[in-house]
Amino acid sequence: MTGVSSVPSTVDELAAGLRQTGYLPGDTTALVSHLAIHLDKPVLVEGPAGVGKTQLAKALAETLGRDLVRLQCYEGLDEAKALYEWNYRKQLLRIQAEGNASGDAGGWDAVQDDVFGEEFLLERPLLRAIASPDPVVLLIDEIDKTDQEFEAMLLELLSDFQITIPELGRIAATTQPIVLLTSNNTRELTEALKRRCLYLWLDYPSLEHELEIVRQHAPELRETIARRLVEVVAEIRGLDLKKPPSIAESIDWARALLLLGAEDLDQRTFRDTLSILVKHRTDLDLVAERVGMRLPAPAGG
Amino acid sequence: MGTPGRGDRPDPRRLRQAAIHGGSDVAGTGLAGRLVQFCEELRGEGMAVGTSELLDATAALSQVEWKDRDVFREALASTLAKSPEDRHLFRLVFDRFFFRAAELEAIRHDATDDRLAREQSERTRPGEGDDGQGDGDGAGQGGEADGGGDGQPDLDAVRAAIARAIAAGDHGRMGDLAALAIAGVVGHVHDSGVVGVDVQRIRRTLDLKPYADPDAPEGDPRREGLPREGIQEFERALRQELERRRIQRVGELPPARPLNQLDRGLPNAPGRDLADVHRVVRQLKRRLNTQGNELRGQRRRTQVDVRATIRASLQTGGVPVVVKERPVRPRRPEIFVLCDVSTSVSSASLFFLSVMHALHDAFRKMRSFVFVERISEVTELFERERDFRDVSDAIARDAGVADVSGYTDYGRVWREFLEQTEDELHPRATVIVLGDARTNGRDPAAGAFAQITARAGRTFWLNPEPALYWDYGDSVISHYAPYCHVHECWTADQLEAFVSALTRSGPVAPTTKAAPKGR
Asked: Which residues of A touch B70 (CB under 8 A)?
């Protein structure tokens, strides 16, 4: 690899860069990433679980030679864990040390100014992304898991790339981070948030695209088996399952077949390895019945 | 040129659309003007597109090269459409907007059929020329058939060619083949007057199925089953071609119509959308289960139970101090459901079957029927199978509702229904019909239907088509409307509205209907 820190100037260059990291972007994915880099706008990535939303952020960071700062969202996430927190213990120590040393009341003002300095600030992911001297890729993962208040708090960050800390004032980004927000669409995000973002809908890839992805990750697998595999996976996704198999699971399946040294994708192999793809009891039955039956019978009889 | 839009009602959305489609010279014709027009049109379809998004879109366009239609569209989509639903809408509006713009130009220049076709293909597929391989022989085939004109192309050959194009995902050829297909099926399919229905009929005549067909000839992709997206794309091409022909016949653009509600609303991809339906149905079940109880608390006026009051007064020496009231029992109507499962409602019938399934859990006394040409009772099936999927499989397998043609025959259905339920229809019964009332030209037999409604207490009709299409083509819903309450029902919201009508409206006085005969 050559020096990757320079920013690719066209969509094709960016797509090639992403490919080099092992991520095969769809046309739209590369286009929207390109726009995000050049328009300095955050991207909201939505889609079913396991289509490579998080992976895209990692690949972008690698392509651009930037650090990835990741904020995993969950219910009950608050500012103290996302933005910054004062380091109380250190502050206390500081005050005590000050009191023991001088012993008179005149030092209080000085101490007060002192304990709310950057030295006592614990950086959390969002602040770290903003304050970093080198540009980073900021990934806010599964934003739909948080509540609306948290979303509102993000607005300032997303539109102006700055954070206001009452005791310190405004901290503006010195470098422009690339921000990716991912969502599994479990709840509708607010209009205000969407308005500030570019929108990328990642769906399950087309047959050819997925075949390419599988072959990239399991290059030793025979072409015919790989093709049969993605066809079966696509068929399974067409069924009404509780949890359709993701791309990661097709890759796992491909690797498992490779490990087992499967010659062909017949009924027995399918039955034995089905649990890699499908992870619900009821789904298992359905898939075995609908898809398994139509595969060729095992060669040995 | 363009006639003013459907601005009969002072609805701001309609007015906005009318303003756009009425005269296209109003706004500037440059890119900025076009973009503003396009955004206006998106807003007209109910998408929230702000000025900031419009600015973003312009900025985005300055960052990409426009040599590819897809790139241009995706750059706009990523800045303007911010949810899966919006993206779907965006695609439809995008196609319509630029399709209309191209057609308008063609009419202005009074282009002939061939010239227009050529211009159309140049205008809408600028990037297609680059690859060249599939295009050459596609154009050759298209030209042959177009030039022939009077001679009908061989239907089997067309079928095979279309199946191949779909299997290969060849976008360029689909447009040409759509034109061929329409010419090929003339005589096999009669014009219903509604583009959507025509598309379905042509698709059926062409044998395009997503599942494997063992009868297909060797080497034909239909043996393996065609990709679903491919079929959908071909349907889009068909639709566009049909619309284009209509425009050419009439010589002017039809009034701009809001997007077909079926396109925006109903589940069309399996999997995910079906899951949505199930989610709504689950909500529905909860609501149905609690609705009766809610009513108990709400209704203050009750009847005095004289017998119980007198009995209670014995404790107070015959003075009725405590007034006893009759308990309010939630209305548990007896329900008969008739569900059309023919292909014209294929996208809706899964929706309807799952609704039936939900209703079965909520109402104890319920009999269900499915029909196409004839009727088949599936009550037992619903009681036996707790899983919705098993139910729909079993219906597909052995309900035995279609005989020969596979077209709905409402007259026969009504007569058979009357025969089977003669003794049980009474004024406390509710009949629900789920169907599109497309008789395919057969006798609607409104008389038989009237007999049913006269015997039953209430009759509801749920139509999965938007009200806009009622009575177009072979839809005869107006024949039945006088006898029942007709509801439009193709979204979960409408379904909920219907359910509350079903459960809340309380006992409908049988006096409004004809008096029950011979019970």
From this structure: 27
What's the token pair of residue B333? 């109507």
ipTM over 0.85: no
CB contact at 8 A, B86 and B92: no
Coil vs helix vs strand at B5: coil
Tokens linked to B320 = 């009725």
Report the interhelical angle of B133-148 vs B171-184 (nearest 10°): 20
Q: Please state which CATH number belongs to domain B273-297+331-512.
A: 3.40.50.410
Both tokens of A77, joined, read 């996430």
Beta-bridged to residue B430, according to DSSP, are B335, B458
Nearest to A66 by CA among A108, A150, A149, A8: A8
Decide if A125 touches B, using CB distance below 8 A.
Answer: no
Detail the DSSP E strand segments found in chain A.
Answer: 43-46, 67-72, 84-86, 121-123, 136-141, 162-165, 169-172, 178-183, 198-201
Cβ contacts (< 8 Å) between B389 and chain A: which residues? 240, 286
d(CA A14, CA A25) in angstroms, rounded, equals 10
Q: Based on the number of CB atoms within 10 Å of its own CB, is B321 exposed (0-12), middle (13-18) or buried (19 or more)?
A: exposed
What 3-state DSSP class applies to B322?
coil
CATH 1.10.1740.10 correct for A11-75+124-201: no
Q: How is residue B67 written in tokens?
A: 């040599």
Report the distance separating Cα A163 and Cα A83, nearest Å: 8
Based on DSSP, count helices (H) and strands (E) in chain B, helices before strands. Answer: 21, 6
Residues in chain A: 301
- Grade residue A68 by pLDDT with cuts at 50, 70 and 90: very high
What are the backbone angles phi and psi of residue B455, rounded to the nearest 5°? -75, -40
Angle at B149 between CA B217 and CA B189, to 5 degrees: 55
Percent of chain B with pLDDT over 90: 0
Residue appearing with tokens 């960071």: A61
Query: A170-203, pLDDT tens digit by residue?
Result: 888 888 889 999 998 777 788 888 888 999 988 8
Amino acid at B181: A
Domain range annotation of chain B:
10-130, 133-251, 273-297+331-512, 299-330
Residue B464: closest CA among B439, B433, B503, B443: B433
Q: How far is CA B401 from CA B356, B369, B391, B413, in A?
A: 17, 10, 15, 10
**H or E element: which one contains B459?**
strand B458-463
Q: Which two tokens stand for residue B486?
A: 């007709």
3-state secondary structure (DSSP) of residue A147: coil
Helix (H) or strand (E) holding A75: none
Looking at residue A248, what is its pLDDT?
A: 87
Check: CB of residue B103 under 8 Å from CB of residue B252: no
**Distance (Å, whole) CA A248 – CA A277:** 9
Mutate to test the interface with B, among A9, A31, A38, A287 (most CBs of B within 10 A): A31
Residues composing chain B: 519
Cβ–Cβ below 8 Å for B78 and A28: yes
Segment A120-159, tens digit of pLDDT: 888 888 888 888 888 999 999 988 888 777 888 888 888 8
Q: What CA–CA distance (Å, rounded) separates B354 from B391?
A: 9
What residues are paired with B340 via a beta bridge?
A: B371
CA-to-CA distance for B335 and B67, rounded, in angstroms? 59
Kind of pairing between the strands at B366-371 and B485-488: unpaired
Residue A138 to chain B, least CA–CA distance (Å) = 19
Instruction: Decide if B389 and A185 are in contact by the 8 Å CB cutoff.
Output: no
H or E segment and range at residue B432: strand B429-434
Q: Is A126 exposed, middle or buried (0-12, 13-18, 19+ CB in 10 A)?
A: buried
**What is the side-by-side strand order in the sheet with B485-488?**
B375-377, B366-371, B334-340, B429-434, B458-463, B485-488
